[in-house]
Amino acid sequence: MFKAILIDKNDDGQRVTVETLDDSRLPDGDVTVRVDCSTLNYKDALAITGKGPVVRQFPMVPGIDLAGTVESSTVDAYQPGDAVLLNGWGVGEKHWGGLSEKARLDSGWLIPQPAAFSARQAMAIGTAGYTAMLSVMALEQQGVTPEQGEVLVTGANGGVGSYAIALLARLGFRVVASTGRLEETDYLKGLGAESVIDRAELSEPGRPLAKERWSGAVDSVGSHTLANVLASTRYGGAVAACGLAQGMDLPSSVAPFILRGVTLVGIDSVMRPYADRVEAWRRLGELLSSAQLDEITRTIGLDEAIDTAGDLLAGRVRGRVVVDMAR
Predict the structure, then answer these.
(1) Ranges for the Enoyl reductase (ER) domain (predicted)?
(2) Which listed residue, 31, 53, 194, 295, has the most CB atoms within 10 A of its CB?
(3) Domain 2-113+290-324 falls in which CATH fold?
(4) CA 46 to CA 136: how far, in whole Å?
(5) pLDDT of 2-37, one tens digit each?
(6) Burial (CB count <10 Å: 0-12, 13-18, 19+), residue 324
């Protein structure tokens, strides 16, 4: 038996509860994992609250991340006792996910848990930190360097934004953080931001081209914000787009691309190949400290996750939320 958050749906709408389930309810897979920790992402909050079309089939256990210990395996790659990690692959959307004491999974979705991190620390990073690392790596691959000037991070108080700031600052970049919560300025500067701007500067319709301000950006917001970020990026700069908190539209023009040679790089973390995942987590192990993880993270139990999902969507959650199955 194991406890899990279960999302179900009938003619009256969606129902979300914490249930005790028999192992026979677990879906197909070649590895069964005893989950130590999961985390609460924006996508998980949309699934739990029903405010976004995340769940593809019902009933569903949400949770796009998990870290745990292999309980049983029918493949050679993983043996009982191995510490493993999962991000994405449609888990929590079309396959039962990590907000559960147990998960049965496809071994191809797993990577070994990096030795640099405990299960709690790995989930403090989760998809948010992993996506931030992929975004920073994309800027590096496009030739963006600290010497070229400031870099912008939008959605700065969220999980992706918080980690993007910490990673970029650690690499020597001068970071501008954009947020709707200016009262969190001290927190953002503590992560490494050199300056903080109000998101209102970027969130309204703007010009196709604006004054050149930053050499690169990590954007988790989309819509008008991303359009304005592109319009303000310096010649030859690059923007990594990894989220759509404001919207999935892009009310922009080709002007930044053909007049300033700006590159827009889309960041997918869900279906990323194994080698990319391992490299991103290796870099995270090099760049993040335990103190930073503690600053960005708070821990809750599984029974608290449903209420916390509503807080996350309402903008009342700073940084990352780890869900500890033993709590």
Answers:
(1) 13-323
(2) 31
(3) Quinone Oxidoreductase; Chain A, domain 1 (3.90.180)
(4) 26
(5) 999 999 988 888 999 999 999 999 999 999 999 999
(6) middle
| Residue whose pair of structure tokens reads 């503590």 in the numeric block | 190
Going by C-alpha positions, the residue among 28, 104, 109 that lies closest to residue 72 is 104
Instruction: List, for residues 133-177, the tens digit of each pLDDT value.
Output: 999 999 999 999 999 999 999 999 888 999 999 999 999 999 999
Cis? peptide before 59, omega within 30° of 0: yes
- The CA distance from 149 to 151, in Å, is 7
Whole-number Cα distances in Å, 10 to 13, 15, 22, 45, 117: 5, 8, 22, 20, 41
Quickly tell me which residue has 């002007």 as its tokens.
255
Residues of the chain with CATH 3.90.180.10: 2-113+290-324
Q: What is the CA radius of gyration of the chain?
A: 20
Collapsed DSSP state (helix, strand, coil) of residue 146? helix
Q: Is 55 exposed, middle or buried (0-12, 13-18, 19+ CB in 10 A)?
A: buried
What is the fold of 127-266?
A: Rossmann fold (3.40.50)
pTM of the model: 0.92
The CB-based long-range contact list for 243-248 (8 Å cut-off, 24+ gap) reads: 243/42, 243/131, 243/155, 243/158, 243/160, 243/219, 245/42, 245/155, 245/158, 245/220, 245/221, 246/203, 246/221, 246/222, 247/222, 247/223, 248/222, 248/223
Tally Cβ neighbours within 10 Å of residue 211: 8
